[in-house]
Structure formats: C-alpha cells, structure tokens
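User: I'm putting together notes for a lab meeting next week and I want to include a structural view of one of the chains we've been expressing. I don't have a solved structure, so I'd like a prediction I can at least talk through. The sequence is below, exactly as it appears in our construct file.
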Amino acid sequence: MKKNSIPKFKLGGGKAKWLVGALVILALVVIVKAPIEAAAFGKSLFEAIDTAANSVVTFVNSF
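Assistant: Thanks for the context. Below is the predicted structure for the 63-residue chain, given as structure tokens.
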C-alpha cells in the first residue's frame, strides 16, 4: 500500500526554475542585508495590493 506523499511544486521548464531560484536567493540576501527596509517594502507592497483589490471590488459593486 502506497503512503500518502506531499505533492511537489512543479515549475516546468529550466528557465522558470532558474528565475524562481534566483528571485528567492535575491530576496533572502536583501532580507539578511537590510531587514528593516525589506520589511517596509513588503508592507508597502501588500498595502498596494490591498488598495488595488479594494478598488476593483468597489468598482464592480458600483454596477
């Protein structure tokens, strides 16, 4: 009987894997070198996404 396994995240081609890996390493370097600035950037990024989502919802609800 086969044990349940955790599904793996598949990225597809080699270029996508390389790009995602490079972005993860870059993010880790930035977080280690400048944690306060990285946290401020992350907070502002999530606030921008929240503002955009709220704007879209408000627009759709206006119909």
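A couple of points you could mention at the meeting. The chain is about 75% helix and 0% strand. Residues 2 and 62 are 52 Å apart (CA to CA).

User: Perfect, that's what I needed.
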